[in-house]
Design goal:
Strand content: 15-25%
Oligomer: single chain
Structural class: alpha/beta
Radius of gyration: 13 Å
Largest sheet: 5 strands, parallel
Strand order of the largest sheet: 1-7-6-2-3
Order of helices and strands: EHEHEEEEHEH
Helix content: 25-40%
Length: 124
């Protein structure tokens, strides 16, 4: 299941690869309250409610019509898990603002799967 056409859904192994790629950005798109409870090490926090306004952190530049995302970085977004709509909402907002969908990966399992598998979680 993909939140938008052109977006790749990934699992834990692909997310771990992206976390090790210095050119990629892994984004915790959850609200501040969820983020404060713990996150995936190496991710950055860009809440789904503001991410489309902060695409400059992801390689885009402001232009007269909104965003120029020719230099967009490869990104992966996650939220709470299969039942959570925060990442899909963020992804659709990013695409509507001009971020290329082929540069977006969606870790659908989110924090729920990450923790169930016993993977490392840090408190910011």
């Amino acid at each position: 299941m993909s939140p938008a056409e052109g977006v790749t859904t990934i699992g834990e192994l692909e997310l771990i690869e992206l976390l090790q790629d210095p050119e990629a950005i892994v984004i915790d798109s959850r609200t501040a309250e969820w983020y404060a409870e713990g996150t995936i090490p190496g991710s950055i926090h860009l809440p789904y409610t503001v991410i489309a306004e902060q695409l400059d952190q992801l390689g885009c530049e402001v232009d007269f019509d909104g965003w120029d995302c020719e230099g967009a970085k490869q990104v992966a977004l996650f939220c709470n898990g299969l039942w959570c709509g925060q990442s899909p909402t963020a992804i659709r907002a990013m695409i509507a603002a001009g971020f290329p969908p082929e540069k977006i990966s969606y870790y659908r399992g989110g924090m729920q799967n990450w923790q169930l598998l016993g993977l490392t979680v840090i408190k910011p």
